Amino acid sequence: MLSLFIYEDDAQQLLAEREVLNNQMIINDFDVTWGVVSKHSVDILNELDRDETITGLYILDVEVDDDMSGIELATEIRKRDTFAKIVFVTSHAEMALMTFERKIEPLDYIDKGLGFERVKEKLIDDFRVANERYLASKEEKGRLFSYKVGAHLYQTAIGEVIFLETATNSHKIILHKWNESIELNVKMNDMEKNYPALFRSHKSYLVNLDWIKDVDLKKKTINFKNDAVAYVSYRKLSELKRLMENKKKIIKDN
């Protein structure tokens, strides 16, 4: 789901921008939600640090009475949200060049001097484009598995993911590939939502059915082609059995 963020210290401008976007959400029934609306950059960055799966549309003023300018905030956003759609709405049109120097790649740079009706039109168009690109990237991400290790973003084919499991000694997730296991700072529920190709066999496991060698219904174990083992809960047994039968996989019941 695309998340909306606004960074603006003019209360009247902030409310106007929020109303424009909110009306478009209702009219078009976009798959979006509100993230953070604030005049403080730390509020936005804290939300992105809290949830590393966010893909957002960010409406940023350039000159804000805060520790960060809008351009500085955009630079930090881009580090955390690689697929961010960033729109600057500002009175400082002369600073547009700086966004290229910082390699921010904004979706738009809107001059407030155009007047609010024109700004509104451009915001509506940018919202439409951002949503279309989000849906396109969502479809592409369905074929790719994206994850962060430290400050680095990695992508791998979803077919290379064998399974995910909850780490026993932390609130993290372990990604299992053929010859590699990687600890991720994400939530299992978010992974289940973002990667519907994977099956939630158990509250602690998300598995790739294509990697399963066989399932032992009595032991409630899932055995993978690389000899790794995961588990299936009792309430998910019948659903997994049906999916396995559709894929003509081996099911052991004795």
Q: Can you give the helix content as a percent range?
A: 25-40%
The fold-level CATH name of the largest domain is: Rossmann fold
What is the CATH architecture assignment of the largest domain?
A: 3-Layer(aba) Sandwich
Distance between the termini: 43 Å
Mean pLDDT: 90
Helix count equals 7
Quaternary structure classification: single chain
CATH superfamily of the largest domain: Response regulator
Strand content: 25-35%
Organism: Dellaglioa algida
Keywords: Activator, Cytoplasm, DNA-binding, Two-component regulatory system
Pfam families: LytTR (PF04397), Response_reg (PF00072)
Protein name: DNA-binding response regulator
Provide keyphrases for this structure:
alpha/beta, Rossmann fold, OB fold (Dihydrolipoamide Acetyltransferase, E2P), 16 strands, 30% strand, elongated
Report on this model:
With 254 residues, the protein is α/β, with parallel strands linked by helices. It folds into two domains: 2-141, Response regulator (Rossmann fold, 3-Layer(aba) Sandwich); 144-252, Beta Barrel (OB fold (Dihydrolipoamide Acetyltransferase, E2P)), CATH 2.40.50.1020. The chain is built from seven helices and 16 strands. The strands form four sheets. The chain has a five-stranded parallel sheet with strand order 2-1-3-4-5, with helices on both faces. The model has no long low-confidence stretch (mean pLDDT 90).
Task: Provide a brief overview of the structure.
The protein is an alpha/beta fold and 254 residues long.
Layout of helices and strands:
Blueprint: E1 2-7, H1 11-28, E2 32-38, H2 41-50, E3 55-60, H3 70-80, E4 85-90, H4 96-101, E5 108-111, H5 116-141, E6 144-149, E7 152-157, E8 163-166, E9 173-176, E10 181-184, H6 188-194, E11 199-202, E12 205-207, E13 212-216, E14 221-224, E15 229-231, H7 237-246, E16 250-252
Parallel strand pairs: 1-2, 1-3, 3-4, 4-5, 13-16
Antiparallel strand pairs: 6-7, 8-9, 8-12, 9-10, 11-12, 13-14, 14-15
Helix pairs in contact: 1-5, 2-3
